[in-house]
Amino acid sequence: MFICSSCSATSAKWTGKCPTCGEWNTFVESTVQKWKSKVWNGKIVETRALDPNPSQKGIERYVSSSGELDAVLGGGLSAGSLVLLSGEPGIGKSTLALQMSEWYASRNQNVLYISGEEHIGQISARAIRLGVSHPNISLLTDSEFDSIFATVERSNANIIIIDSLSVLSSSSIEWSPGSISQIRIMTEMCMHIAKKMQKSIILIGHVTKDGSIGWPKSLEHLVDVVLFLEWVRTENYRILRALKNRFGPTDSVGLFRMEENGLIDLPNPGLEFIDQESSVLSGSALTFTIEGNRPILIEIEALTTYTKFWYPKRSARGIHQGKLDLLIAVMSKFTGVDLESHDVYLNIARGIQVSEPGVDLACIAAISSSKKEKPLGKTIYLGEVSLTGVVKNVLFLERRLMEANKLGFVHAVIPASYEGKIPKWMECTRIKNIKELK
Ligand SMILES: Nc1ncnc2c1ncn2[C@@H]1O[C@H](COP(=O)(O)OP(=O)(O)O)[C@@H](O)[C@H]1O
Ligand SMILES: [Mg+2]
Fold first, then answer.
1. Which of 258, 263, 264 for mutating ligand 1's site (highest number of atoms within 8 Å of CB)?
2. Residues carrying CATH 3.40.50.300, the chain
């Protein structure tokens, strides 16, 4: 068998270029023995039934001083778990990692922060900027895995952060340093130590800028939890998602704002994403979209102007262009709003991207408001609009209404078919068709 020394792909024939990882001259011949002996000598092992009364104690969890982080992890970091935190370069992984050290240290945990990417001066400067200074934090700057492994085994820290996996190398593992195969073995070693010593280990991995998830993808099955940090486009907001979690749900997201002194929790993201003064202006409609399982208040802005050209221009930012064309077509068929000789611009404020249909009604309301020059005030619009002009129910409508209520909104326009709960103090106008939109 020939085995690629870079990615450990196998081939029966020698080839110059590895078809899996694209590296040249990496195939090495090796002897692979399928069966150690000709005799099958397995032992019969006792099987058991499911435990009808499993212990309620469950897994020990470390709670941090960031509610957003704890929520993403499903209620805290599980003791003895291996977590992979990945994201694009520059997104703020090292920032988050250093802040996590402080967040856990201030809750009486001992944290070991290992950096192979930056020297002590750089880390200290960042720590000062972020206000990270807890005595329970120890630092190690090294990229040689064998000494890291030995230090971790002897350390009294129960939370270990390694920034980052891609710069680690080991002289005792076969395969070339930095190769996927080596990284995979180091990840397995981390899992081993996490389980054996009940230490929680957080590994940081990079994802390339072009959006393709490089080797962190191939490590996902080796770890307990995969966290992914991403931008909310242009603004200084970050979303932390759990793509995989053996100890909790994967639909919760954490929201943060990046500031000079690091990532700040956004427990009530709603009011961050809208302009308080917009409700008096025409062309602005408020709605809630769902991010993970969280309702987020967003503002849809529309502008309609008399067209100077042969055909009217339609331009969308934050929602799909095709969606805007479709909504305009539905509007001209079922409402009295005539847009035939008007350019229409639609934008979701703060550079947020929405691909779910729950905001359709709000888009139509915003366009109609701009055309009629009639402000909509603080009304929330929730509903999907079908090609027949019917306003349809949307996913998590009740949750969106509850959140609206929590943030102090008292009026909403919703689909007539909604049968769920209406929060106290909330007045809802139910409509069947966009014709009824005032
Ligand atoms: N002085 C600063 N003020 C505000 N934000 C900063 C400052 N320095 C760095 N940042 C933020 O930190 C990000 C870089 O974070 P870092 O943790 O180094 O990313 P990563 O480890 O993912 O490559 C920058 O994109 C910027 O948003
Ligand atoms: Mg970094």
1. 258
2. 61-267
Strands 200-206 and 82-87: parallel
Which CATH code, of 3.30.750.24, 3.40.50.720, 3.40.50.2300, 3.40.50.300, is assigned to 61-267? 3.40.50.300
Ramachandran region of residue 75, left (φ > 0), alpha (ψ -120 to 50) or beta? left
For residues 43 and 24, what is the distance between their CA atoms, to the nearest angstrom? 44
SS3 per-residue string spanning 345-358: EEEEHHHCCCCCHH
Of ligand 1's listed atoms, the one at least distance from the Cα of 204 is 21
Name the strand (E) or helix (H) holding 398. Answer: helix 397-406
List of E strands, 330-416: 342-348, 380-381, 384-385, 391-392, 411-415
Task: Please compute Rg for the chain using Cα positions.
Answer: 27
- Integer Cα distance of 139 and 116 in angstroms: 11
Query: Ligand 1 centre from 258 Cα, in Å?
Result: 8
Q: Supply the pLDDT for residue 230.
A: 85
- In tens, the pLDDT along 10-25 reads 888 888 998 888 888 8
SS3 199: coil
- The CATH 3.30.230.10 portion of the chain extends over 271-436
Nearest ligand to residue 88 Cα: 1
Q: Which of 179, 178, 248, 191 is nearest to 220 (CA)?
A: 191
- Between 263 and 30, the more confident residue is 263
Which residues have CB under 6 Å of ligand 1?
A: 87, 89-95, 258, 260
Cα 68 to ligand 1 centroid, rounded to whole Å: 19
Q: In what order do the strands lie in the sheet with 314-317?
A: 314-317, 342-348, 294-306, 284-291, 380-381, 411-415, 427-431
- The rounded distance, in Å, linking the Cα atoms of 52 and 253 is 32
Residues lining ion ligand 2 (Cβ < 5 A) are: 94
Instruction: Report the pLDDT value the prediction gives residue 413, as an integer from 0 to 100.
Output: 97
CATH number for the domain formed by residue range(s) 271-436: 3.30.230.10
